[in-house]
Design a protein that fits this description.
Helices cover 51% and strands 8% of the residues. With 158 residues, the chain is mostly helical.
Length: 158
């Protein structure tokens, strides 16, 4: 069984990652379950730039997930509710809200529970204590239309 696999994003970009690390994604784990010799896993539902972020997350976590962030969120400061590494990662991603929303959707698609909850916690930290009009603005993705974060927020109710 190969030690590394290659995740292939929607645009065809290839990302090599340790097989054990990639298994935090149930999508990847299920894809590899049927063929232990497989080395390539297409991830057609995730853009290359977002898959790159996910591979960074996988490498940081080395195949393990942090505890799910407590709800309701007890602080707007991510480093107070999760590890410093995860806080830095998600705060950086969250600087561009559309990127944050895309990451949440990709984490949901790839079934990476910890990352999904981390992304939703970041959205919660952005809206915590804000007036309704500001919340609407925060949840509005770049370019208008309906906010994908609203759909992803439903996932964190469990």
């Amino acid at each position: 069984m190969p030690e590394t696999i290659t995740l292939i994003g929607k645009g065809g970009r290839r990302f090599e990652v340790n097989r054990k690390y990639a298994n935090i994604s149930k999508l990847v784990e299920n894809a590899l379950e049927g063929d232990q010799t497989a080395t390539d896993v297409p991830v057609p539902g995730v853009n290359d730039d977002i898959l790159h972020l996910i591979v960074n997350y996988m490498n940081e976590h080395k195949g393990t997930e942090e505890k799910i962030i407590e709800k309701p969120l007890r602080s707007k400061v991510m480093s107070e509710v999760t590890t410093q590494a995860d806080a830095t990662f998600i705060d950086t991603v969250g600087e561009r809200r559309q990127q944050l929303y895309d990451l949440i959707l990709a984490a949901n698609y790839m079934n990476i529970v910890g990352l999904l909850h981390l992304g939703c916690a970041k959205v919660a930290s952005l809206i915590k204590g804000q007036p309704l009009e500001k919340i609407k603005e925060i949840l509005q993705p770049e370019g208008g239309a309906n906010a994908p974060a609203a759909a992803a927020a439903d996932d964190r109710k469990d």
